[in-house]
Every structure is written in C-alpha cells, then in structure tokens.
C-alpha cells in the first residue's frame, strides 16, 4: 500500500471517529500532529487508529517495539510499503 | 486557634504549592482556605465530608480540614454518576460536599467519624468500591518516598487527581515542600504546556501516558530529574525511549497497589525486577510467587474495604494478587493478569460492568465487551452488540456511543464498537 493510500485510510478512520463523537470533520494534512490538539482525538482514539490500520494495511510496524511518530504523515510512512 | 493538622501549614508561608488553571497558590493560601473550611464545618457540626473535584486546591484543602478536625473524608471521582454519589452521601451520612462551591447535604453521619480517608474506584454500573485509609498511613508513604532529589520538586499531576496515585502525588508535594502542577486540559498537549509553563521536574505516570507524551514533547522542552512509571508493567522499549528523550533524568518503574502501597521500585532501566528480591524482606515488604502469581506481605496494608475487596488476604497474612510472574534468568517479570479485567492505559475496566451498562440502553439485546491489544494503550475496550430487529443500525449505534461518552469514564468507553447479528457463546455458556 502506498503512503497516499494509507493517508486516505487514516483520514477516513479519523473522520469516522470524529463523527462517532459528534464532533465536526477536521482538516487532516500529512503535517498535522495527531495529538497536537488540532483534531479532537485522544490517546485512546490514537490507539484504536493504530489497531485499525493494522487490520486494513495487513502489517504491524510496531511488532518489534514502539517506533516514534508525531504527525499523520509519519504514521502513514510506517504503514506504507 | 485552629489545629495545624497533618500538613502543618502556616498561613504566612508564601512558598508555592499548587499551579492550576487559576494560577499559583501558596502553602499559606491553602492553610487559609483550610481554616475557612474548618470554620464552616464547625458551624454546621460537620464530621463527614466529601470532596468532588479534580482541582488539587479543593482536594488538599478538604484533606487538610479533615485532618485538623478528625473528620472522615470521602474523595470522589468527578466522573462518578450522580446516583452513586447520592447513594454514598445517604449511606454514610456525608454532611458536606466540597468543590468549587461547598454545600451542605442535610444528612446526619451514620456513625462517629474516626479521621479516615475513603477513596473510590470508578465503578459505573455497579456501586463504587470504597477503600478506607488513614491519613497518617498515606502521609508516611509520602514521607518514605522523600529522598533528597524529591525536595522542592515540581510534580506534574498526570494521574486522576481523586485516585490513589493522584492523591499520593499531591501529598508528596505537600510533604516535600514541592509544587503540584495540574493542567487545564488533561491531554498530552495540555500536560506538556502546563509542564513547560511551570518548569516541572518530576513526572510520575503510566507507561501509556509516556508513550503518548513522547509524541508531543521535544528535546529541551523539560529538564526532568525524576521519571516514574507505574500502574502497568513497564516494557523495555518504553523505558529505552524515555531514557533517550531524557538522558539526565532518573528513571524508575514501580509496582504498587492500593492495598499494599509501593511494593518495589526499579532504577536500573531494565524491565521486570531482580529475581533475588523474591522471598527476601525489603523495607518490611516481602514478595513470593505461588502457582505463578505474585503474593505480597506488608505491614502497612491499607485499612480494608468498606465494600467488597479486590486483593484477597490469605490466611497466612499474604495478599494474593492476580498478577502473573515469570522468572527468566536473574530477572522476574510481571506478565499479565489472570482475570478478565481490561487494563486500558493503567486503568482497570471490568467488562461485565460495561456490558451491563450497554444492556440498559434502548434497543440493545445482547452485548459482549472484551479487550483488544494495541501498542499504545496496552488494551482498549471493544464491544459487540446485538440490537432489536428493525432498528436502524447507524442511528442506534450513534445513540449508544453518545450514552457511553456521557456516562462512562473515557477509558471505559468502547473504542471498537460493532453492531453484529449474533454473539458467540462458548460451551461453558460464557460469551466470546
């Protein structure tokens, strides 16, 4: 899966989370910091996002231990192959 | 003349103690607030009070006032449903509720006060479990943690302020002439902002908090002296990342329980603990492994539960935990819990309680709640529900999720939520 495709998945999962919370949709860019406050998700939403990405993309970049990431783009890179 | 109480605060002391949304409060400010509260309690003949706030100012002035008067204090989570609070107030005869606006309840105490501190678990559907502590025991724990590096320290209050760990951090700041820093917004970005603004030097938090916090903190943001991990087993990769981000800080991971207090502290940066600590008494505490489970013996176990107990005490005086231990070489590791409890970022969630809550929602006919693992929070709450035929799955789903957000703590809300046709039943007759 390409980085652009992963980005699309991240965007759609996050938008669905926001919708479930009754919060209005957010602009999500590769440089958006996931927990920086621009999008209304908490660390448990982020945990769920990572879990869902594993299901969609088919591999777990954290299998060998945690890897640092801060932005949407950095997270997408981890899953892209 | 009002008694000084266990804190021994002086109204003329201008040293800072609390940094919260309203700014900085001194030890003297707290002493004056406690004296005012003592006067109000005396006027209404209050011997049982409750504090219900996440603000350390209200929590500490309530503890101080209780210790000056010998009153019983109930420390309640702000996210407990009203009905449970009302039930506790009635059952125990709590006369006054301390928060941003103190108020009298009109109740009379069910029994004479004995200067106890009662803390509650965050039960949602069942009644909260209430643990009884003595302030002197809590204070001696805080004093025991007082090595020179903790004097005058600035603590970031990452734990739920009304929980056991959160209260301990606040007491430690009082005892060590430190400052407790409470952010306006309890998000990683909010914690970082408050920590930077106040020059925080010590952070005690769950490994899950650290994983999220490391995503927002940048090199040079903070000069931390002490980093502590507790509430969940600390894993090697998180310990390594913290060490890399804060090379100058002392990194400690602890194993503690409400019942036994801090059982061990590890400072060598390696996950697990030295196996030689087993069966040897250290500062009065002894650990042993029986049938793969960790047992603890400690002279300062808490006073007991007013309601049902979590860690059963065996006939020989040991506390039996549900934590499984594995020994590999010279090291012992806590490898998991043998109950159905879901550990979400260090907070325990009882699946049955969430199931019962879901089953009370309109249109829900069956619910199965379980944990799903992930690299960030350890586990998360997942729920499968079966709804009445003919209902629209999308609107029913939204309504149920909204009810969960309104009534459950954020860590209890199912983050994976599926409407399914049926829920599998095992041969044992149990779900899932």
From TrEMBL, chain A:
Organism: Hyphomonas polymorpha PS728
Pfam families: PP-binding
Lineage of origin: Bacteria, Pseudomonadati, Pseudomonadota, Alphaproteobacteria, Hyphomonadales
Domain of life: Bacteria
Protein name: Acyl carrier protein
InterPro entries: ACP-like_sf, PP-bd_ACP
Residue ranges constituting the Carrier domain according to the UniProt record: 1-81
